[in-house]
C-alpha cells in the first residue's frame, strides 16, 4: 500500500536533510534519497542507524586499510589526545610523533627523499606539491618552467589547484576550472583507448610519444612536472599498461620534467608493495600520500620531496627568510600519533605479506566475472580492482548512461550488504587490507547476488 512507499525518516535523517550540504552528492536528490546514516564500524564492516551491517568493500573512500575498529589505532588516538591534543609545527616547533613519522616515511619511500611536509588531505598535499614545484623552479632560476601535466581521468582532489589537476569533467564543469598552467594528456586505459590489435607495450609507446610531442609543443622550458597516480582510482581503477611508466619517465628525464607520484590511494600496501611506485618502477621526485597513512582514522597527508628539490627550497627560504607555506594542522600531534601507529601495525601484522597472500584470490574472483554477460573488462592489482559493464562485449559499446547501470549495481550490492563504488558503468572494490579469506568469500557472494539481480 501507499504508506509502505513513504520513506521512514529518523530525527537524524531529518537534521541531515535539513542542514547538511553533502560533498559529491546530487544535492537536488538528497531529500528523496536520504542519508545512509552510518553509526558504527566493526572490523571490515560498518553499521547503519537501523543496525544493518555492510561489508565496506571500498574501505569507505579507499582509506580504512585496517578496518573500522583497530584497537591500537584507537588507543594511539586516545593517548595522544590526553598528552598533547594540539600543537603546531610553524617556526621550528615540533612534536615527538611527527618527527618519528617523518623519519619513518623517508625510510619507506620508493626513492631517495630528503624531507616530508604534512597536511590534512590528499587535495592539500597535491596543492602543496604544486606550490613546491613552482617555488623550486623560481629558486633554481627557471621562472618560466611552471606548467604541470596531468592525465585525463586522473584524480588529485578538489581544492582549486588540485581540482585543476584532476581530469574528470564533473570537477571542472561550472567551477571555471582548470586554472592556467595545468594541462591534461591521455588516459592510459588500454581497454578503452588502445587501437584495435595494439599491444599494451605499443599503446604505452604511443602515449609516451604523445607526451613528448606535448612537451615540445608547450616548450620544454615551460613544463615543470607530470603528476600521476600509479593506479588511477576514482577515474575507474585504471592499471597502467605494461612499460608505461618506464617510457613516460624516460621522456620526463629528457626534458627535466619532475615526476610526481600521487600515492593517495596506492600508498601503504594497496598494490601489493608499500607504494604503487615500487610496483610500477616509478622514481618520483615528489610523492604525495594520505588515506591509508592513518587508515582514515584521522585526517593526515604527506608530501615527500627529493634532495635536489629540498636543497633548492632551503637555500631560497634562507635567502627570503621563510618558506611561506603551512597549515594550522600541519603535523597535528594526534594525527601523527595515529599515523605512526598505523605504520607500526602494517609492520607488526605483516600486512604486505597478507595482501600478497590474498590478492591472487581477490584478483581471481574478480576475473571470474568475465564469464558473466555484460562484463566487458575486469582490472586490478593487489587489493584494488574494478568490473566494467558494457552493452556489447564484442564491440565494447557502453550502455546508455541514462540506464545508470553502475549506480544500480552499487545499489543492489548495498541491498545485499556490500558497499562498492560506481564510477560510470564500472564498479570498484578496494576492501580493507585486513580482510580474511572467509570475509572475502562473503564479499564476493554478496556481489554475486547483486550481479544476479542486474541480469
Ligand atoms: N589523490 C588521489 C589519488 C585521491 O584518490 C584523492 C581522493 O580520493 C585525492 C588525491 C584527494 O584527497 P582528499 O579527498 O583527501 O582531498
Give an account of the 3D structure.
It comes from Comamonas squillarum. This is Aspartate aminotransferase family protein. By secondary structure, the protein is of the alpha/beta class. It folds into 2 domains: 36-69 and 350-454, Aspartate Aminotransferase, domain 1 (Alpha-Beta Complex); 73-348, Aspartate Aminotransferase, domain 2 (3-Layer(aba) Sandwich). It is built from 17 helices and 15 strands. The protein has a 7-stranded mixed sheet, with helices on both faces. The chain has a 4-stranded mixed sheet with strand order 1-2-3-13. The protein has a 4-stranded antiparallel sheet with strand order 11-12-15-14, covered by helices on one side. The mean pLDDT is 97. The structure holds pyridoxal-5'-phosphate (PLP). Pyridoxal-5'-phosphate binds next to helix 4 and helix 7.
Task: List the keywords.
15% strand, 7-stranded mixed β-sheet, Aspartate Aminotransferase, domain 2, globular, 2 domains, 17 helices, 455 residues, binds pyridoxal-5'-phosphate, Aspartate Aminotransferase, domain 1
Question: What's the arrangement of secondary structure elements?
Answer:
Blueprint: H1 2-5, H2 11-19, H3 30-33, E1 38-42, E2 45-48, E3 53-56, H4 59-62, H5 71-83, H6 96-108, E4 115-119, H7 122-139, E5 147-151, H8 160-165, E6 182-185, H9 190-193, H10 200-218, E7 223-228, H11 244-254, E8 258-262, H12 276-280, E9 286-289, E10 301-305, H13 307-320, H14 333-348, H15 351-368, E11 375-381, E12 384-389, H16 405-415, E13 418-419, E14 421-423, E15 426-429, H17 437-454
Parallel strand pairs: 3-13, 5-6, 5-7, 7-8, 8-9
Antiparallel strand pairs: 1-2, 2-3, 4-10, 9-10, 11-12, 12-15, 14-15
Helix pairs in contact: 5-14, 6-14, 7-13, 10-11, 16-17
The structure holds pyridoxal-5'-phosphate.
